[in-house]
Amino acid sequence: MQNTSRGRVRRLGGIVTAAILVIFGIVAVVMGLDGRSAVHSALKQQGVVGLPHMTPTAITASAKEAGLQDVELPTCSVAATAVDDGAAARCFAQYMRIDALMATDGRTYAQMPRFATPDGRGTNDPARAQKSPDGRPVENPARGVWVTATALSNALNMSYMGERIALFGVAVGAAFLLVGLAFAVFATGGARIPPRLRRGQGRA
After folding, report:
1. Which residues pair with 123 in a beta bridge?
2. Does the pLDDT value for residue 190 go beyond 60?
3. 174 CB contacts (<8 Å, ≥6 apart)?
């Protein structure tokens, strides 16, 4: 009688555990799919389309012409392609970085002088900088190009990361769902272990 009571408690516990796992799995899958849909929707609203030069062949030629050296070039292509998913957003961001480097002579924000000069070389000395009509040093415009490009490319990379996290949530949810269903099968007696094996008397 006691063994029967314990068996019922175990079965009930297994069913409850299975139900929790299944519910958690379903919720995780739904949330993951919703997150992925939100990323795609947000990207589509921007209406971004890859430019003709955004192919590995074209960007290699452009980078060589601009004199860029030791720069990792994109290997993907988004030319004439709508940027409406994470992979395309990440690819577009890679091309934006190369475009920014070509506009700044291969220098990043930290490598560029702060102020503009008449000869275009720039300087960190306010006294040697080009002056605005009110006498203030003119900020280096190339730095502004880099800041804008970095901000936009980071937003695109966040879309890629958001989509990856959403897909990971779907995968985790599916795993919990399968584990929950397996628990349910065992808890309801759908898969029974032979008594001789439960007693440890089985032999290979």
Report:
1. 115
2. no
3. 25, 29
